[in-house]
Amino acid sequence: MKNNRFNQTIKKTGIGLWNSLPMIIATTLLISLAISIIPKSFYFLIFSKNEFFDSIVGGLAGSFSAGSPIVSYIIGGELISEGVGLVAVTAFLVSWVTVGLVQIPAEMLIFGKKFAIWRNLTGLFLSIVVAMVTVFFVSFNW
């Protein structure tokens, strides 16, 4: 009995994955295109020296950029070396990895529209909060 339910679950999972594979491939290609089209110099133009505003801009830029954590560390290092504030870079990195508005059509297809929208909005908000809290504790002298 249990083995039969397990096999049914595996079969349903496989079918679901197979059905969502085209959207996953399309999303991956779209992310790769966005990463290659948007030059790194663009990010240097959009940040001011206001930490609160920069954290919002960093969170939004990371949300639209979306990519792998390894690439985000490289871009984050470049932003820091160009004088972009730590709060903005941290918000950018957190939202880069966790939000991903480019992937929202795939999320809507797989998880539903309401869930995808709420997950992305929550991720954006929390990326800004995490950035501010992280920089606060980093700058706090123990």
How would you describe this protein?
By secondary structure, the protein is an all-alpha fold. The chain has one domain. 84% of the residues lie in helices and 0% in strands. Helix 1 packs antiparallel against helix 6 and helix 3 (51-65) crosses helix 7. The longest helix has 36 residues, at 2-37. The model has no long low-confidence stretch (mean pLDDT 83).
Q: What is the total number of structural domains?
A: 1
The description of the largest β-sheet is:
none
Structural class: mainly alpha
Rg, nearest Å: 18 Å
Number of helices: 7
Terminal CA distance reads 59 Å
Assign an overall shape: elongated
Q: Give the low-pLDDT segments.
A: none
| Average predicted confidence as pLDDT | 83
Helicity range: over 70%
One letter per element, helices H and strands E, the order comes to HHHHHHH
Number of strand elements? 0
Strand fraction equals under 5%
Short description:
The chain has 142 residues and is mainly α. It contains seven helices and no strands.
Distinctive features:
142 residues; mainly alpha; 84% helix
